[in-house]
Records
---
Amino acid sequence: MADAERTPGFNTLAVHAGAKPDPTTGARATPIYQTTSFVFDDVEHAASLFGLQAFGNIYTRIGNPTCAVLEERVAALEGGTAGLAVASGHAAQLIVMQTLLMPGDEFIASKKLYGGSINQFNNAFKSFGWNVVWADPDDIGTFERAVTDKTKAIFVESIANPGGVITDIEAVATVARKAGVPLIVDNTLATPYLCKPIDFGADIVVHSLTKFLGGHGNSIGGMIVDAGTFNWSRDKKYPMLCEPRAEYSGIVLHETFGNFSFAIACRVLGLRDLGPALSPFNAFLIATGIETLPLRMQRHSDNALAVAQWLAGHPQVAWVSYPGLPGDKYHALAQKYVPKGCGAVMTVGLKGGYDAGVKLVSNVKLFSHLANIGDTKSLIIHPASTTHKQLTDAQKTQAGAGPDVVRLSIGIEDKDDIIADLELGLK
Amino acid sequence: MNHDSYPDSYIRGILNTVKSIAMVGFSPNTSRPSYFVFKYFLERGTRVIPVNPGHAGKEILGQKVYGKLADIPEPIDMVDIFRASEFVPGVVAEALALRPLPQVIWLQLEIRNDAAAAIAEAAGIKVVMNRCPKIEYGRLSSEISWMGINSRTLSSKRGQILPGGVQRMGLGNAGDKKSD
C-alpha cells in the first residue's frame, strides 16, 4: 500500500494512518511505549537528535512513538502536514498561542465558544499579556473591524459548544488572509469526519481529543494540527518560527522544516518548555477510539437528529437549537460545512426554566449527568449551574447557556431508548 | 514529470538508487538546512560531496569540499542544489557538462525553475523540485512519523531497521532480501 498512488479514504485512514506494524517486534496493534526516555544509538546520534538534525525519540515530554501514531492519524484525517498531541484541549490552545503571541499581542476570538475556552482566554491568557478581542460569528464584519497591527491570530470553533453555532469558516478565513494572520479552528465538536476546516482555509486545527475523537469518555487529551498553509516568514511577525533559535544553535524553524514547521515549533519550543505532554497510555486509548470514529460520528449525528426532531414537538420544550433541524438558524451553513450530520450536541430550552432543567437532569436514568460531551453514552448537563457557572449572566446567554438551557450529548445507544429516557425525564 | 506532485514511487526510486550526492550551495554552518541534509545522508552511508567555492579544499566531517562540480574527480549520481531559483540554470549547465551525466538533479524546498528542469529532463536526467531529500527519506522510511509528521503512507508491513541503531529506518520492508 505504501507505493499505491491512490489516496486512501477517510475510513481507511482512521484505521491505518500512523500505525504501521512495530518495526522491532512486529506487533500489529500500536504498542504502549510507557517509557520516559529512549537510549541513543551512540554519542553522535544523541547530538544529532538534540540538534534536530535527525528524526527520533529522546524523552516522552517532547515525543513518544505511541503519541506519534495518534499525531499522524489526526493529521492525516484533518488533511494537515503534522500533529502534536498534548495533555488536553486547553494545553493545545496554550501551546498554539504561546507559539504565536508575545506579551502585548492580540488575537480575535469568536464569542460563541466552549465556556472553558472563554475562561482561559479571559483569565490565564490575559495574565500572559495575550489579549483576546471578541467577535461575533453571526457578523463577520466584527472580525474584520477587530483587526489591528497587534493581531496575531483568529480563533473560532467549527461547531460551537454548546450553542449549536456553525461558523462560516471560509468567510473568517478570508478575513485572516487579508490580515496576514493564521486562522485557528477548534474542530472538537465536528471532528474531521463531519468537517475538515483546512479545506475551508484553516491554518491550524485544534482538538480536545477527550470528546469524539477518543470517543469513550476515558482519556483527556488535546491535539494541534498544522495545515502547512501559512507562510511564517513573510511578514516576520512570528519570531518563534522565522528567527534563529539560540538554543538550537541558531536554526530557523520555518526555513528548516518548511510546511510542518509550526507543529515542530509547538513541539520543540512550546511542549518542551511548558510541559503538558500526553501520556502514552491515553494516546493508545484515543488512537484506538479513532479507528471507529466514522461509524460513531454517523450514529451520534443520526441519533441526535432524531432526538432533536422529537424534542421540537414536545409540549414542555420551548426551543431546540440543533443545526440539523430544517428551521434552525444555522441549517444553511450546516449543509455547507457538515453535510453528513451535525454531531451529537444540542441545547434545549425548557418552558419551565431553571427548575425544569434541574428536574430533567435529576429524573433521567440512561443519560449521565456530567460535564463532558462526546462519550458513547448519552450525557446531559445544565450549563448555567455547572460548566458556565463562572460566566456572568450576560456571558451565559451570549454563549447559549441561559438558565432554561439544558445541553445534551447524544450517545450511540438505540435512539428509541434515548427518547424514552427523555420522555420519562420530562414527565 | 508533473512537478507539482510526485508519486511516492518516483521519489523512492531515486532515493533507493542514488549512492553519491554532490551538494551545490552547501554551507558548513551547522545550523543551515544543507548541513542537516549532508550529515543525515553521511550517517546513512551515502557518499556526500560538498560544493562551495568559498570553502574549497577544506574538510567537513571528513569530506573534502570542492569549488565547482567540474572539480569532483569521480562520478556523481545526484546533484542536490541549495541555491536560489535564479541560479539553477547555471548549475544545471555545469551538471550537463559532467561525464558520466548525473542521474538526478534535486532542488531543495522553495527552489523551482521549470525551464532549467525541462533542459535537464531533455538530457534524460530525473528532476525533483521544491522538496528536501532528508524529509522525503524520513517520510518514506517512516522515521519522520516519530515527529508526528503526516507521512502520507500506509503499510501493513514491518519497516526496515538499518544497521547501526534502532532509530534509523530504511526505505524497504523488514523481510526484504537486499537492504540498501
---
Amino acid sequence: MNYRTQQKITRICWIVGLCALAIPFVFPFLWMLSGALKGQTDVFASSSLVPAKIHWSNFSEVFAYQPFARQYFNSLYIAIVVTIATLFISSMAGYALARLRFGGSAFILLVLVSALMMPEEVTIIPNFFLMKELGLMNSHMPLILLPLFGSQGVMATFLMRQYFLALPKELEEAGRMDGLSRFGVYFKIALPLSKPALSAVGIITFLFSWNLFLEPLVFVNDIELFTLPLALANFTDTYGLPLWHLQLAATALAVIPMLIVYVLAQRQIVESFAMSGVKG
Amino acid sequence: MSAVRKGPSLSLKTREAITGWLFVSPILTGFLIFFVGPLIAVFYYSTTEWNLLSQQSRFVGMANYVDALTRNETFWDVLVNSLVFAAGLVPLNMAMALGLALALSKSRPGAVFFRTVFFAPVITSAVAWAIIWTFLLQHESGAVNQGLSIFGIDGPNWLHEPDWAMVSVIFTRVLKTVGLNMILYIAALQSIPRDYEEAARLEGANGWEIFRRITWPLLAPTTLVIMVITVVGSLKVFDHIYLMTGGGPQNGTMVLAFYIYEQGFKFFNTGYAAALAVVLFALILMLTIVQMLLKASRK
Amino acid sequence: MSDFVIKRLIYSAAISASLGFAANTAIAEELRFTVWTGSEAHLQMLGEIADSFTATHPDVTVRFDTIPFGDYVQKITLQMAGGNPPDLGWLLENSAPAFVEAGALADVAETLKSTDGYDYADFSQPAMGLWETSDATYGIPFSTSPFLIYFNKSLYDAADLETPDQRVKDGTWTWEQLRADAKDLRDASSGIWGFETFDGQGYGSRVWHTLVPIIRAYGGSAWEGDSCKLDSSLAAQAVQLFHDMVYADGSTVPPGEQGDFFSGNAALTMTQISRVSKLSEATFEWGLAPLPFGPAGDASTVGQAAVVAFAQGKHKELAAEFLAHMTNKENVAKMAAFFPPARKSVLEANSFLTSNAAVAPEQMTFVAQGIENGSVLPSHQRFPQIEAEARPNFDALWSKDADVPATLKKLCSSISPLL
C-alpha cells in the first residue's frame, strides 16, 4: 500500500465517520421539517420522513392559533436590545477594568468574577418579588434587565476585559496625545479595534437571550408578551395535549431563519471566536 | 496635555479614578440591584417558612436546611442527580468537542460543511431542540427506537425509565451544546503555530505524540475555560428537564435548578426553595474557587 | 374560517353600546377570567355569557385566558403572587381547600344572595360542600361532571363485540370486562390502542383521575380523614388491574406513547361529558357508557370545578357580580350543554337530557345518574404538597415489573405525614 492510497483511505474514513456522527445533529431538523408538513394524526401514524400529503396550512394555522408573529418579534427585539445594551455597558466596564487605575477596581473584578458562574436559578425567587415591587411583572423588562446585569452581563464584561488587556496600548496612547478624552479613546479607538471580541460576545449574548426560558416562564403571563420559547411550548389543544403538527411547524418557523443567517455568516462567526481569544 | 489644563483642581490620578468608576457604574449599579441584593435576600428567605399562595411567612431559622439535609430524602436524590448529570455531560461534551475540533480544524474540503452541521443545534432554540427530541425518543413510534429496530435492537422507553431518562437528557443536551465548545477548540487549535507540529514531525514524532506533548498542553487554558462553562451550564440546566421529563420518572432527572423552580413556584414552598438556592450558590462558589486556584497554580 | 381561534383572545364586544355616549360613560373595565379550556365551542359559549352581561354592565368586557390544564394552578398562583391576579377563574375540586385556607378566594355570598332571582338554595347541598362554610361562599360549581367511558362504536362493531352501553343493560359492564374489551380491540399493526387514559395524561397530571375511579369500584379509597388508604389490598387489586392492562396486556396507551381516542386511535377512554365537543369532526361512530362496576359495585366518580373570584382581584365587586351572572339559572342551563350543573332546577328539568345536541337522551341519563350517585374526587388542604410527594411514587408503578402493593405502601408512607 503506497502513501497515496493510505491517504485516500484515511480521507474516506474521515468522511464516513463524520457523516455517521452528523446523523443525530441533522436528523432532528429533517424530522422537524417533515412533521411540520404532516397532518395532525399522521405525525406519528407514519414513520416515513416524506409526508403522505403536504399540509402547508399548518404554517398559517400557527399564526391563527396564537399571535405568533408578535411573539417572534418579542424574542427578536428583546435579544437585540439585550445584545446592544450588553455590548455597550460591558465593554465600557471591561475597558475600565483593563485600562484604568482606580481604587477598588481589583475588588470589583473579584466580585464580578465570583458571580461569573452563578445561574439565574439562585436569585430567581427574590427577583420575582423585586420585579413585583418595581411593577415590572408581566412585562419584558425582567427579560432585559436580568441578563444584562446577571451572570451573562458579568461574563461579557470579563471577556471584554480580557480582550482589552491583550490589545497593544500604543494606539490608545496616540489618541490621548491627540487630545481625546478617556471616553473618546474607548469609543473611537479601543472599540473599533475590538470588533472580533464584540461580535463573539454579541453572538453569545444574543443566543443567551434568544434561548431564555425560565425568566419568561416566571415573569410573563399574557400570550401577546410571550417569547418564542414560551410560545413553542404552548401549542396544546383544549386539554393540554400537544398539537404536534402545529408545534413542529412553529418550531420550524423559529429555527429556519436562524439556520439561514448562521449558514451565511458561519465563516465570520467562527473567525470572530478565533480572533476574540475567548479563552479566559 | 489638554486634559490637565481643563481640570486644574483635580490630579490626573483622581480624574482617572473618577472616569473608571463612571465606566463601571452602569453594570455595578445593575449588578447590585439585580444580583447582590437578591443574593442577600435569598439567604434571608431561606430562614423563613413562606407559602407563596397565602403569602404568609414566618421565621424558622435553619429549619429548611435541617429539613433538606436530614429529613427529606428527595434532596439527596436531587443533589446526586445534579452531580450525575454534570459527571455524565461534561466529559462526554468535552471529549466530543475536542475530537470534532481536531477533525475539523484544518481547512480540508468538507470541513466547513461539517462545522456548520455540528454548530447548528447551538443556534437552535433549546426549547425547539428539546421538543423535537421528545418526539424522537418515544417508546414505539419514536424515530430512535425505529432506527434501532433495524439492527434488531429493542430500544428502551427512553424518557419513562429513570436511568434511561437521565441518559437521554444528557445526550440531547450534549448534542445541543457541543458545537460551541467545538468552535472554541477550533479557534484555539488554529492559534497554535504550525512550526511546532512540523518541528516535531521532523524529529519523528507520530500524531498521538504530537497531540500529547504539544497540542494538549497548549490547549490547557482553553480546556479549563470550556470545562468551567460546561460544568456551570450543566448545573443550571432547566429547559431540557422541564420539557422532556418534568424531573421524572421517579425524580430520576430531578436536578437542583429544576427542583428550586418546582418547590418555589409550583408547590408554594418558597422558603424551602430559597434554602435550595443557597445550596446551589454554595456549590457553584466552591467550583469557582477551585477554578481560580487551578488557574493560579498554572501561573 | 380557521379551526383555531386565537387562544385567550375572545373579547366580548361592549364598545358599540357606549358609542354615542363616549364622553359621559365611565372608563371601560376588563375582567380577566382564567379557564383551562381552549375549545372553540366552550369559548364561544363563555363569550356569549359575557356578552349578555353587558345588558346590565355596558362598559365591562370579559377576557377569557386559557391556561393549559397541567400548568393551571401553578400559573394562577404565580400571577397572584406576582401582583397580577385574574379577577375570576375556574378552579378544580382538588385545589379548593388549599385556596380557601390560604384566603385566596373572595367571599361572594352577599352578592349572590342579594342578586334578584338568583335562588341560591337551588344549588344541591352536597355539590356545595367544598365551596362554602357556614357564613361564606367561595365559589359556585359550574361543572359536577361524572367520569364516563367513551367508546369507538365503529371498532366495536368491526370486532363484533357487545358495546358497553349494551352491557350496562345486561349488567355485565365491569372493569374486568373493560380490560377484556381493550385487549380484544388493541390492534398493534394498525396503531389502534384498546384504552387511553384521561386526555392521555393518566400518568402525569391526571394520575388520580385514572386510578381513583378503579380503586373506588374495588371498594378502596385514596384517604379517609388523615389516614392513607392507598396501601389497602383493595386499592392494590384495582391498581394491579390497570397495571396489567398497560403491561401484561399491552392494551392501554403506556407512558411515552400517543394514542388519541378522539382521532380514532384508541377504542376506549375515560373522560367527561365536556369532551364531546372534541368529537364534532370524528370520522367514526361513538357512544357513551358509565364507569364500569367493580367488586364493590357502582362507584361513580365526579370531577368538580367551580367559578371563583380571587380575593386579590382588582375588580372584586364587579367580579362577584359577573360570577352571579354566570351562574344564574339561564346561564347554568346554557353551560349544561358541556358542564353538568349543580342547580337542581336545571338538572331535574327534562331539557337537561336534550341539552347536548351531540348526545342521545338515553346516554345523557348516564350523566344524570353519575351526578346523582357519584362522589367527588379526593381533595386536601395540602394537595400540592401531597402531589409532589406522590408523583415519584406513582412513577414507580409504570414499569413492567413494578411491585404494585409495595409501591403503594411506599406512596402511603410518604404522603401520610401531610394528611
